[in-house]
From TrEMBL, chain A:
Record-given protein name: Anaerobic sulfite reductase subunit A
Organism superkingdom: Bacteria
UniProt xrefs under PANTHER family: ANAEROBIC SULFITE REDUCTASE SUBUNIT A
UniProt gene name: asrA
GO molecular function: iron-sulfur cluster binding; metal ion binding
Species, as recorded: Fundidesulfovibrio magnetotacticus
SUPFAM superfamilies hit by this protein: alpha-helical ferredoxin
Pfam families reported for this sequence: Fer4_22
Residues of the 4Fe-4S ferredoxin-type domain: 231-262, 309-334
InterPro entries: 4Fe4S_Fe-S-bd, 4Fe4S_Fe_S_CS
Keywords recorded for this protein, A-Z: Iron, Iron-sulfur, Metal-binding
From TrEMBL, chain B:
Cofactor stoichiometry and binding remark: Binds 1 [2Fe-2S] cluster per subunit.
Domain FAD-binding FR-type: 8-108
Lineage, uppermost ranks: Bacteria, Pseudomonadati, Thermodesulfobacteriota, Desulfovibrionia, Desulfovibrionales
PANTHER family: ANAEROBIC SULFITE REDUCTASE SUBUNIT B, DIHYDROOROTATE DEHYDROGENASE B (NAD(+)), ELECTRON TRANSFER SUBUNIT
One GO BP annotation of this record: pyrimidine nucleotide biosynthetic process
Single GO molecular function: flavin adenine dinucleotide binding
Designated name of the protein: Anaerobic sulfite reductase subunit B
Database matches in Gene3D superfamilies: Dihydroorotate dehydrogenase, electron transfer subunit (2.10.240.10), Nucleotide-binding domain of ferredoxin-NADP reductase (FNR) module (3.40.50.80), Translation factors (2.40.30.10)
Originating species: Fundidesulfovibrio magnetotacticus
Amino acid sequence: MDQAKFLPDASLAAWLAELSAARLVLAPRREGGAVVFKPYDPAVPLELTRDATVPPKGAVFPACEELMRYRRVKDPEKPGQPLLEVEESLPEGGVVVFGSRPCGARGFTVYDRVFDAGGLNDPYYAARRKATAFVTLACREAGSACFCHWVGSGPADPDGSDVLLTQVPGGYVVRAVTEKGAALVGSGLFSPADRREGEEAAAHAKARESLDDPRDLAPARQALLDAFDDMEFWSQLSAKCLSCGACTYLCPTCYCFNITDEAQGNEGARLRTWDNCMSFQFTLEASGHNPRPTKAHRLKNRVGHKFSYYPGLHGGAIACCGCGRCIRSCPVGVDIRQLVLAAVERAREKSHD
Amino acid sequence: MTSLPNPYLPDMATIVETVQETPNIKTFRVRLDSEARRKAFTFQPGQVGQLSVFGTGESTFVINSPPTRMDYLQFSVMRAGEVTAALHRLNAGDRIGVRAPLGNWFPYESMKGKDIVFIGGGIGMAPLRTLLLFMLDNRKDYGRIRLLYGARSPEDMAFKAELPEWLGRDDLETVLTIDREAPGWEHRVGLIPNVLREMAPPAGNAVAVTCGPPIMIKFTLQALKDLGFADGQIVTTLEKRMKCGVGLCGRCNIGEKYVCVDGPVFTYEQLKELPNEL
């Protein structure tokens, strides 16, 4: 499956047209100062020079999706007690996400362990995941907030992608990663990569060289638990946090959600929407008790979930893809790397006490 | 595509009877509409369910009838928020959604042969009722059974229709208490932890099962420890704001544990192993 092919720059639009003929293609474009995934339109330029501001997670896990519809139907026998009809709203149709970076695609491997594993299968997630293909573009160089290599990934990581593209002079080296990906690169637009594989390797090496030295995050799992009751530590780290939730909404690995009903007369829908663990209401109980009453408690849970609880439940896998969006987009400069390293450092100091 | 059932899709059910237990607690007895689902339905004492009022939402409640009495599933609902207020507006004949059973259950197998001390405060009596009735229906499997049930006032005591029977049984020692004196009240007056200390149930071969408001639990735990109960001899059920009920949505976790799937029943020994975030 790993037979490299070559796609000349001049054929990119033709390939996207081919893909668009069969399925919805989401591709990155500029909107104001942001880069977002939108349905591909040949008239609008692609933005492939920088990573998207908003990751492609909505393709598989939409910000808002309908889980079911309900309808109250009048029962002629008992007019005051209507019957209730409920129908699942399972998603249909396939999507190609074109031009995501490896971190954005790899985020879904974090979701897969939760939504599509073991005894539970989330039918909405599973249907979208199965019907979505990721044509990913390897990174040419690291951004200032990138730390994918700290969490076991890298600028040309194929994990979670179906096709990996690497930009080389004159075009792209194209590798199908999965069967699903192989089906997308079968047309006559592609030629064998041949000597261009050397250019591909060089591009990957150049991207790796642009990254800083990785830090070992394995000790974070225990270090964060050790710091659990040290609220002074968490209060200091969270002092400038605004609880705005930008970090969670832009995170390719955050998957907390809410379920709410929307009524329109005698019918309506049950919806699933992204939720935000940095919000006070997230864990507020009906009694008024809140187990995470301050932003320090909530930030502790967010970092703990990604770097301690999730790894504990999923064989050490960290629930962070190192994309750095939470760092780049935080209005007050909270840096998740510093939070994790501070916990590790705290544990190291305590062990020396 | 999955062959597993959709975990979000409720069964349709009809309310067969309601009981206004207290000014703000209403009991709902419900039957699943589908006969096939009704026949296939099983659960364990302590498991919870999500009740849906379509158009308003879902909330989690313990199934407080025991699996030994399957004529209906009983849920007792304290009015506290939007969904509970919508539920309180419903009556017999109305239809709701039920997602159940969810979560774990009381370790009733390992409690066999032991003395059982139930300590329930307010709406916290609901989960205890399940296990109490289950044990009364399997009476020979258990030793002495004591029940201490407390509420703020006589009006706040739920399950009033059953209290005379519980008080009258030879094989159940029932003590009722309210916080302050009230006209006509013939039982104990005093806070639950204090009454528990006076009852002084022997810890030797016993398990204490407790549920109630956090402040009651805190002082009840202290009283139980003073009476010699070890952490592994104390069982409780936790409340959390549960939404999905299947361990995904992320709001009921305590460290690596999700109350909706790893709980709501925990021994105090297990709770002490968890990060401190109740």
